[in-house]
Structure formats: C-alpha cells, structure tokens
Amino acid sequence: MDSGKKLSGTLALAVFTATLGSLQYGYGLGVINAPQKVIEKHYGRSLGVLPQNFTRSLNSTEDEEPHPLVVMYWSLSVAIFSIGGVCSSFLVGFVGDLRGRVKGMLMVNVLAIAGGLLMGLSILGKPHLMVISGRAVMGLYCGLSSGLVPLYIGEIAPVEYRGALGTLHQLAIVTGILISQVIGLDFLLGNDAMWPLLLGLSGAPAVLQSLLLPLCPESPRYLFIKLGKEEEARKSLKRLKGEYDPSEDIAGMKKEKEQVMREEQVSILKLVRSSQYRQQLLVALMMHLSQQFSGINAIFYYSTAIFHKAGITQPVYATIGVGVINTIFTMVSVVLVDRAGRRTLTLIGYGGMCCCAVTMSVGLVFLSTFAWMSYVSMTAIFLFVCFFEIGPGPIPWFIVAELFSQGPRPAAMALAGFCNWSCNFVIGMSFPYIEALCGSYVFLIFAAILFGSTVFTYFRVPETKGKTFEEIAAEFHHRRHHPPPDSSAVTELELLKSSTEA
Questions:
Q1: Residue 400: which residues within 8 A CB-CB, separation 6 or more?
Q2: Angle at CA 456, nearest 5°, toward 454 and 462?
Q3: What is the DSSP string of 184-204?
Q4: Per the confidence metrics, is the pTM higher than 0.85?
Q5: Per-residue pLDDT tens over the stretch 296-329
Q6: Greatest CA separation found in the chain?
Q7: N or C: which end of the chain has fewer CB within 10 A?
C-alpha cells in the first residue's frame, strides 16, 4: 500500500497539465495592465479621435487625458473578461460531467486559442473590437477553467497531498500574473510594435495543454461514481498512484456512490434549496466572498500610487516585486497547507491581513505629516500579500471540492466560481469610486470585512486536512441542529403516529 501513497510521474504530469489552465487564467488577468497606454493610442487611431501619425512618447509627463470614447472602450476591454467568467462559471458542472474532466478541459481550450488569435491579430482589423471580443472569449474560457482545474485536481489527488496539490492552482495563477507583468515591460513586449503578440500569448498555454491532456488519466471518481466503470477506475488509480492495491480507494468510492444513489441528481437550484448541503454551501461561498472582498485586488490597484508617493521613479518594478512575493508565499502555502491545515492557515491569513489593512490606513492618513509613513504603507502592502497567499488566496479554490461529495460537487464548484467572478467584477468596478469617497480611510472598510472573515472562519469552517469526503460530510451532519433520521425522537414520533389513541 506504500506505493499508493507516493507521488507518481503520471500524477505529476496530470497536475502540471491541469494547472496550465490556471497559468493562462493568471496571464489573462495581468496582461492587459502593462500596455494600457500603447493600446489606448491604437484605439484612438482606430476610432478616429487621434491622428494616424500620433507618436507621443509613453514616458511623456503630459497629463493629457484620453478621449472619452477611448476610455469607454478601454474600460470594456478590462471588464469584459470578468463578465465572460461570470457567464461561463455556471457551466462548469455541465462541461465537467458531459464527457469527463479531461475531455472537458480539452474542449474549452478551443475558446482560449480563439481568444488568443483574436487579440494577437487585432492589429489587422479594428483593434478595439478585436481585443474586446478576444477578452470576452478568454473570459468565457477562464470561467470554465477556474472551476474544472480544482475539480479535477481535487478528485485525483491522494488525501495526504490534496491540500498541497490543490494549492498549485493558485500558484499557477500568480505565476501567470507575474509572467504577464515581466514580459509586459516596455523593452520586451509591452511596446507599440509587440503588444498584439503580448495579448495573443494568452492562448499559448492552451496549445501545450491540448497536447498533454490525452496523456492524462481521467478522474477515477468520475469514472466509478458517475459512469459506474469500476475496472477503468482501477486502471486510472494505478496510473496515478503506481502499482498498488486500489481496493481501499474503490471501497471508499463505493460508499460515496451509494450515498449519491440515495440522493437525487443535484442541480444548482436543488443545491441552493437543499437543507442537507446548506452549511457546506455557506462555508464555500463565504470563503470566496471573503477572498475577493478582502481588498487584495484593491491593493494591486492602489500599490502603484503608494510606491509613487514613496519616491520610487519606476513604480512598475515595485509592483513586479509584489508579484514576486505573491508567487513565493504561494509556494510557502504549498508546503504548509497539509501540515498546518486549511483552517489554521486561513485564520492566520485573515488575521494578518486585518492588521496590515489597519497599518496601511494609518500610514496613508499620516503620509502628509510624516514622510516615512509611506514606507510603513509599503511594508504593510508586502505583508498583506504574504498573508493572503499563505491561506485566503489558494484555499477557497480547492476546499469546495473537499466539502462536497461527488453528487453536488460540480454544482458547488459552479456556484463558488460564479460568486468569485462576480465579486471580482464588483470590486474592480467599484473600488475607484469607494477610494475617491473614503480617501486614505478606504482600507479600514477592508479591515472590518477581514475581521468578520476571521470570526466566521473560527466558528464555522471545519478542518479538512487528511479527512476523506465522507468524514467531512459526517462532520457537517453532526453540526446540523436536527437529529439524524434514526434518532429516538423520530422513533417516538413514528410510534405516536401509529398509535390509535393519537
């Protein structure tokens, strides 16, 4: 049985191949920011609001505002990505169950390649229309991929490595963001000549993933529980874990299948209405809400301004520094998550972020009085990112797959993805207005949210480290206020009903 606990080459290949979708998701999130001024210039030319020979330097200090029409199309280029993700996140369960997890990821790669081509060839047509179309298609892909990748990894990962392997989804996302920040620098691809290639590379990981996916085994849980193919599930387990006796894993899946057979097919609507899964669903959605409303995206939006106030002449490099720390501490989470546990790391993360948000607010409020306060704010930003990636960043993505059994899992992943993408869009659109209204006190709002998230995690989120799906479901069952069906109270009620005197 020892060999069944080792990480095999096939399992490593399957996880690497799946996380290429996460890498693409991160790249798509970050790639649009660096070449903003360059793309706005091409938008202006295409829309006829800038002369064709307009060549103002990107490093110009002129405070010339772009034309309102350019601003509108640029805003749509950024926001359409999240809108696409919101729309497609509901289809995760359908795509994952249609032909399986592996074929599902293979199918949606068509969207990624099409989106990359639209953006990469945008210079040949109307840049504003082609970039917006490409970003919309890429958003549709990322909405599906951000659900399918954790779903597949959660189902193929051994229990003892499930946390570490699940964290790789977030690691790939932040790595994709960092890659887009680096190659988006002006002297690499973020310039007037190369920006279409920069955007077009969004679809490159999908090409590699399409070549590798046929080499990856299908999820054994999907094969056995969904399709009833025990022999194929055994073969898949042996490919993933090496030569070992899979009887114990099959027995566990049999119990889960019996439970699924007793349940009706769980759709999104039934999952929302079901009292049986209410606590799991509350935990799953709250973890995604807390992740997005923690202020992490606002930190990235605001960091450049803080670095600029600190006297850094090239704040873009400081922002890349944040990206590097982002990636390093996600790696730390990979190491710690199966040792310290999900709940512990989430508590540490939210508690630390809350303290950092308060410190950041103090630094911003007194920035005009004490010049050194800018460095206090900078330090708080770096620590804020560190605490986020230790727990609140990666854990919500894979804990949803741990909280639900095979039946409701795809629907739960779809709802969690929809919640995450919707909150991402709300924060992205509303933060500039909230910041304008609250000024330096804006991060006190996030501090309050983070305090609430810490309290919720302490009282409601269970520890899932090293537990089977059955054990986690049993823990939620014991938490419910009403007694189980075979309790003495139910028995007495049935006797009462059958009594002629009653």
A1: 150, 284, 287, 288, 409, 412, 413, 416
A2: 100
A3: TSTTTTSSTTTHHHHHHGGGH
A4: no
A5: 877 766 666 667 665 566 777 777 888 888 889 8
A6: 96
A7: C
